[in-house]
Design a protein that fits this description.
Two copies of one chain form a homodimer.
Chain A: E1 6-10, H1 14-25, E2 29-33, E3 45-48, H2 52-55, E4 60-62, E5 73-74, E6 83-84, H3 87-92, E7 98-101, H4 106-115, E8 118-121, H5 126-146, E9 156-160, H6 164-175, E10 179-184, H7 187-195, E11 199-202, H8 206-209, E12 215-218, H9 227-230, E13 238-241, H10 251-257, E14 260-263, H11 268-271, H12 273-290
Parallel strand pairs in A: 1-2, 1-4, 2-3, 4-7, 7-8, 9-10, 9-12, 10-11, 12-13, 13-14
Antiparallel strand pairs in A: 5-6
Chain lengths: ~290, ~290
């Protein structure tokens, strides 16, 4: 339980609503800033304007998943006005307060450092990254379903990279009946691929392994699907690149060759905001309980 | 191989293109009627106008998946003109000719009976129905992904009916990490559900089993999700009804209660026309080979 803990939420999207619900369920005292458009049913939370006063006795400050921009602004889907977080606001936070965000930039980092505040970047935690790989993999599969005229079942798929997303994606595709090949660099990863009953190959051999692919999923944030590799990819193949921008695909060459190649946006918040929100909620609230 | 066999195709959609490709690969002699808009690359097929002459020496007549309408018309996605099949055309077919369609109506049945022609309704074959359950299940899962804010993984799903589609759907959902309950009537089906590691319940208990459902998939072509049952379904639950029209859901009541309930169209030809076409192609060509 979070009885006696006071948490301020400042803006955000559908994922943050899940965190708010979860915190209320755990009996936290919740202050909502930048949620004037949100219809609240039931008790457990109060709305407030941003001010140094309202921040002076909180145990946790929960920012939007994207954090603050370079001018200190927090986006909110539930307010017409943008909320600006200045040094004065950070100065008013008590020393015990933990600041939570998904990702961070220089402005937020600098403010927290200056005021000696603990900053938790949830997306940097291995736990969150692994759990987020579930909606990421489902979102990638959904994109594949929407962009092909074949079933995943019976298809030949290639997964490049075997990190947290690569492993989840390979398992999900295999479970759906796809024949899955996985390209990875580390011998230990190829051993795990083998243990899972899938076919592994050294990533540097990718050009020789794509000739029969119906679907290629790239998770490697480096140029992997180069023009040289794409020249061996069948034209009907669909490429879903889930590596962070700009992806690992030569999209210009893919288009020129007539191959459909899509750079996936950050999928969890889009395809399953509720699940993505619950992941953040559980980790955040556990963190608050444990840091006492 | 189908060397020496002459097959006439009359209209159809993307699925029929797969059948044509497959027949050409097997060395059949192929005549295309109602495909004037189709760009043909490579040899192996000739285009023709519909006439008694062109039909007089064929071994198989392949109609669109939907068959002929009550006036004898065949739809074609690859021709502006509609093609009308009259008694004169059926009279010109040699006695050895087999007529293939997906489904049939009284007109087509009557014509074939009158002329003593073998009529194969591919969708009536158990083999085709089981293979078609794969794109059907994937399409239903895709609809669920597109209409929820949660992942299939970790969700509580309920599958009603354990026929060909019900079994494939239950297996697919479980493989994705959903907790699956299956409602079925027959004791043998519930035994199979148990063997698959899933939770079964007698279909008549459905009202007592839906209170925790995130997703309900109905495959039973009878009123199963009645108002009485829907009153126990959580409002956030999404219902995908894949039973043939009008489905087994009281859609009026679902809407009134604010539950999202969707009647799925015939999914294979929409979500995976290529896979659906290959299913028809393999069965049709095997049939032709075996009947000599």
């Amino acid at each position: 339980m979070l009885t006696g803990k006071r948490i301020a939420f400042v803006g955000g999207d559908a994922r943050i609503l899940e965190v708010i619900r979860y915190a209320i369920d755990l009996d936290a005292s919740v202050v909502l800033i930048g949620f004037d458009r949100l219809a609240m049913d039931g008790a457990g939370a109060e709305k407030a304007e941003l001010s140094p006063d309202v921040l002076s006795d909180i145990d946790a400050l929960v920012l939007p998943v994207a954090g603050l921009d370079e001018d200190g602004y927090a986006d909110s889907n539930y307010s017409a006005a943008r909320i600006r977080f200045t040094d004065e606001h950070f100065a008013s936070l008590p020393g015990r307060c933990t600041v939570f965000t998904g990702i961070s930039g220089p402005y937020l980092e600098q403010m927290c450092r200056r005021r000696g505040l603990a900053l938790v970047k949830l997306f940097d935690l291995d736990e969150v990254a692994i759990l987020n790989s579930i909606p990421t993999a489902e979102g990638a599969v959904q994109m594949a379903m929407e962009n092909t005229e074949i079933t995943i079942h019976g298809s030949q798929s290639v997964v490049l990279g075997f990190g947290r997303c690569g492993m989840t994606l390979a398992r999900t595709l295999a479970a759906l009946g796809s024949r899955v090949k996985v390209g990875a660099r580390k011998a230990a990863d190829l051993a795990r691929v083998y243990e899972m009953g899938l076919t592994g190959f050294p990533l540097e051999e990718v050009a020789a392994r794509v000739a029969d692919a119906d679907l290629i999923f790239n998770t490697v944030p480096a140029p992997v699907l180069t023009a040289e590799v794409l020249a061996r990819v069948p034209r009907e193949c669909v490429i879903i690149d889930i590596a962070s921008k700009p992806g690992g695909t030569d999209f210009r060459y893919a288009q020129r060759r007539g191959i459909r190649a899509l750079l996936a946006p950050s999928l969890p918040g889009i395809v399953a905001p509720k699940t993505a929100g619950r992941i953040l909620a559980r980790t955040l609230c556990r963190h608050l309980r444990e840091t006492g």
